C-alpha cells in the first residue's frame, strides 16, 4: 500500500492512498469506455503518466487529478475522499438521515445505502405525508425504472393517468419516464421501499 502525505494551506496535512485514487480513476475510465490515451490527450498529459497514476505508482498534483476527474465526469472530492469502492456497503440505522421535509413534495426520503459511484440501483424509503398535510398534486418523472414495496400503510399510486390502490405487502414495478405520484389515502401516512434502477 502506497501512501503520500500531501501538505495544504497553513501546513495542515492529510494522507491519501495513491492506490485507492488510482483504482477509482481506472474504474471511472473503464466505465466510460475510454482508453488511457484518450483521457491523457484530453488532460494534456502522457499516457505513461496516467498509467502510473492509475496503478498507484506515482503521486500527482491536485490540478492534474482535477483534469482527469473532469475528463471522466466524476467529482474530484470522490476521487480524493480516501474511501475505496467496495462490494459491501453497511449503513447503520442511526446514521441514516431523512431528507428535509418539503410540504410541496408531500413526502421525505431516507437513503438506505451510501451507494457506489457506479451502482445501478438506489434503495430508498419514501415516507408519504398523511392526507391532511399532503398538498402534492403534480406527478413527476425520472429516467430510472422504479420498484416499490409498501412497508406500512396504504397509498394510491397514480401512474400514467390511472390510479392503483396499494397497501402493506403490495409491490409494483414501472418506468419512471411515465408521470407518477404516491398519494396518501388516510392520515396514517405510508412508508414505501423504493428501488431506483438505472438502465
TrEMBL record:
Record-linked SUPFAM superfamilies: lambda repressor-like DNA-binding domains (SSF47413), RmlC-like cupins (SSF51182)
A Pfam family that the UniProt record links to this protein: HTH_3
Keyword DNA-binding on entry: yes
Membrane-spanning intervals of the chain: none
Source organism, top-level taxon: Bacteria
GO molecular function: DNA binding; DNA-binding transcription factor activity
Keywords: DNA-binding
Classification via SMART domains: HTH_XRE
Domain HTH cro/C1-type per the UniProt entry, residue ranges: 25-79
PROSITE patterns, sorted: HTH_CROC1 (PS50943)
UniProt cross-references to PANTHER family, sorted A to Z: HTH-TYPE TRANSCRIPTIONAL REGULATOR (PTHR46797), METHYLPHOSPHONATE SYNTHASE (PTHR46797:SF1)
Protein's recorded name: HTH cro/C1-type domain-containing protein
